[in-house]
Amino acid sequence: MTSWGIIQQSLPMFEKGFVLTLWLSFIGIIGSILVGLICSLLQYFKVPIFHQIATVYVEISRNTPLLIQLFFLYYAFPVIGIKFSAQLCGIIGLIFLGGSYMAEGFTGGFNGVSKGQLESGKAIGLSRWQLARYVVFPQGFSLSVPAMAANVIFLIKETSIFTVIAIPELTNTALDLIGMYYRSNEYLFVLVVAYAIILIPLSAILTLLEKRVRYGSFGN
Amino acid sequence: MADQILQVEHLEKYYQKRHVLYDINFSVAKGEVVTLLGPSGSGKSTLIRCLNGLEPYQKGTITFEDQQVDPTEKNWQQIRQKIGMVFQSYDLFPNLTVIDNIMLGPTKVQKQSADAARAEAIQLLQRVGLEDYADAYPRMLSGGQKQRIAIVRALALHPDFMLFDEVTASLDPEMVRGVLNIIKDLAETDNMTMIVVTHEMNFAQEIADRVLFLENGKILEQTPSKQFFAKPQTDRAQEFLDSMDF
């Protein structure tokens, strides 16, 4: 069969993988943003105990590979009686990893708000909470958009590791097909194109978004 | 004394081990304009920042409107509504429009209604000639315009007392006059009590009732303005005046 024929034949399977990759990424990114937001707020307000827990979590999560985190969820947890489906393991793992990256991004944004801004907020009598609500968060979020955009792209690419716990996303689909039919060139080509279809337009949209929110950084 | 609005007694300030303010004593009467003069690094800005709690101090007391300040963040937060402060770097909030910058304090801190706060903000903007910029963002304004808005933002809280920390130091020369005129108008028309840190000697001379001359963290002299600019009490202050080009 011609290469083109091989590719055409595989497309329905890749389509399923494509949809699954998108879906898992979407859930993972939303979850990561939520977890990251919660952790960065706990750290910002220095909520007793919880902010230390958040810090420990961020350190563990950032300093271990997703691969190992997934093995842990998939193979080690069942030993102590906790068993998740492969897809749930993937989502939990991705959120566990992404949460800390997002938290660091938000924290970086909050810390990036200048001392002068904080002082002029204090000078008009704003409380700590009001200062956060009206000055630090709006500016901090726009400062953290570039980091968030990088994390979104990063997390989508990280879903390719899900193949090790046999989630039939894009990479897993390609590796499966290669294993069955030994046509690595064709399948890898489709795989690369599939990721590019997701990531290149997304990256362009995110760049646009970064431009739109940049007001936060050059006010004065 | 009943008409003292601010009294500072035996104030000492350290940055870690570095002693930066030594035994500062002075008071400011209601309606009085005091300028802080002195060479760079003499502690003028540090002192003025102590007066609304932006810098902690280690010893001494600040008494504001006959109440000795217990210097906790929470107390300062209450007091700051009554002490307007304007900074060298303007620091308008870039995420808010001009009018929202001005209304933030009145509506959130003092819980005024949005309509009342807006009406007053517009009035204040008219006073500084910037009513057309109410809905602009700070990034669209020039330095001089931003600084005038920053003054309005402080005034919107009806402070009893204003602190100006080198407010014209980062402005282009042609912008300086407009900002200084507003401060002067505040002193003359509103009889506002203020402490002004400045390097504009002409302006200091025009506006000040009294000069505090600082060097190396100490107040070397406190002299009525006329006398200070005619003949200061200390040689060091004379040297300082001679070195200034005005």
UniProtKB/TrEMBL annotation, chain A:
Transport is among the record's keywords: yes
Subcellular location per the Swiss-Prot or TrEMBL entry: Cell membrane
ABC transmembrane type-1 domain segment(s): 18-210
Transmembrane intervals: 20-45, 66-85, 91-113, 134-156, 187-209
GO cellular component, one term: ATP-binding cassette (ABC) transporter complex
BP term (GO), one: amino acid transport
Pfam families named among the record's database cross-references: BPD_transp_1
Membrane topology note: Multi-pass membrane protein
Recorded GO MF terms: transmembrane transporter activity
Keyword Transport: yes
The entry's keywords: Amino-acid transport, Cell membrane, Membrane, Transmembrane, Transmembrane helix, Transport
Taxonomic superkingdom: Bacteria
Family (UniProt): Belongs to the binding-protein-dependent transport system permease family. HisMQ subfamily.
Name of the molecule in the record: Polar amino acid ABC transporter permease
Organism from which the protein derives: Lentilactobacillus rapi
UniProtKB/TrEMBL annotation, chain B:
Gene3D superfamilies, A to Z: P-loop containing nucleotide triphosphate hydrolases (3.40.50.300)
ABC transporter domain: residues covered: 6-241
Keyword Ribosomal protein: no
GO molecular function: ABC-type amino acid transporter activity; ATP binding; ATP hydrolysis activity
Alphabetized InterPro entries for the sequence: AAA+_ATPase, ABC_ATPase_HisP-typ, ABC_transporter-like_ATP-bd, ABC_transporter-like_CS, MetN_ABC_transporter-like, P-loop_NTPase
Keywords assigned: ATP-binding, Nucleotide-binding, Transport
Pfam families registered for this protein in UniProt: ABC_tran
SUPFAM superfamilies per record: P-loop containing nucleoside triphosphate hydrolases (SSF52540)
Similarity field: Belongs to the ABC transporter superfamily.
Protein name: Glutamine ABC transporter ATP-binding protein
Naturally occurring in which organism (per UniProt): Lentilactobacillus rapi
